[in-house]
Specification:
Strands 5-8-7-6-9 form a 5-stranded mixed β-barrel. It is 29% helix and 21% strand. Helix 2 (19-31) crosses helix 3 (107-116) and helix 4 (172-184) crosses helix 7. The protein has a single domain, classed as 3-Layer(aba) Sandwich (Rossmann fold), CATH 3.40.50. It is α/β, with parallel strands linked by helices.
Length: 286
């Protein structure tokens, strides 16, 4: 599969086009109509991209509205193709809020996907479990979130459109379809459902913070996903999100937490995670 350098083939659109408009136009020119589903890959989920057949790979660097990534385990590419008969666009990583202190690092990318014609964003991440019944290597459908950081990618957004309803942030219908797909492929017992709590990081949480989150009803904790969900909902996109548990949260196990440990556990559990994700994506009816 070839990597396309879009700037070799098409000049940037003339006139006052924004980076988002320019990116959507380039995607349309080079890749054709947008697939309905885009999949945003987090740590441990990268092998999913290898299952995508056909299409093309575009570096984020070629897309004016896409970010420069700064975290290991993220390819920084957009890949199109098919999982079975389902057309998808796969994003190899995200910019994290802890890299800059701002939550809007994926604003241009998410809005470009919407402008191109994507309808659903399927998010994935690596997370710590705060529930003894949810063990490392298992998965969780995100049903809701806690924005503990109290940061929003919509800070400074003009107009009344910034006041978006988050009552169905993680689409109920899509979650039901995902659950049915996991059950049908024999992976239902490893797919939990619960509330994801977002801390900005980059430091891991303290045991006291984890006790607070458990009291608030959290099941998983991590440093991603919530800003992208807010951006997607603001752009009119539906959201489905899955967490891969790589560890028990601080204070719930003796082992010290580290990014190396997260990567190692995520890689060890990626086969099952990718199998579930592939089944889910193919089963979605939009």
């Amino acid at each position: 599969m070839n990597t396309l350098n879009l700037t070799e083939f098409s000049p940037a659109p003339a006139g006052p086009a924004t980076a988002i408009e320019a990116t959507a136009a380039l995607l349309q020119q080079r890749l054709g109509p947008a697939p309905a589903i885009a999949v945003l890959l987090g740590t441990g989920w990268a092998p999913f991209a290898d299952q995508v057949q056909g299409g093309a790979v575009v570096p984020y660097a070629d897309l004016p509205a896409f970010p420069v990534l700064g975290v290991g385990g993220h390819s920084g590419t957009l890949k199109t193709g098919r999982i079975g008969s389902t057309a998808v666009a796969v994003l190899g990583g995200r910019k994290h809020a802890y890299e800059t202190g701002e939550a809007d690092g994926m604003k241009g990318a998410i809005r470009s996907l919407a402008a191109w014609g994507v309808k659903v964003v399927v998010q994935t991440n690596a997370a710590g479990s705060m529930d003894p019944a949810m063990r490392p290597g298992e998965l969780m459908l995100i049903s809701d979130h806690l924005n503990i950081s109290q940061r929003s990618p919509l800070f400074g957004e003009p107009g009344d459109g910034r006041f978006i309803d988050m009552g169905n942030a993680y689409d109920r219908s899509l979650r039901a379809q995902a659950r049915a797909a996991a059950d049908a492929t024999g992976h239902g017992s490893a797919l939990h459902e619960g509330v994801y709590a977002w801390f900005m990081g980059p430091q891991f949480e303290t045991p006291a913070e984890i006790r607070m989150l458990r009291t608030l009803g959290g099941h998983a904790v991590g440093m991603r996903t919530v800003p992208e969900t807010i951006l997607a909902r603001h752009a009119g996109l539906r959201v489905l999100a899955l967490s891969l548990f790589t560890n028990m949260a601080a204070g719930m196990q003796a082992e010290a937490l580290s990014h190396a440990h997260t990567l190692a556990t995520a890689n060890a559990a990626s086969d099952r995670a990718v199998a579930v994700l592939a089944a889910v994506v193919q089963a979605l009816e939009l």
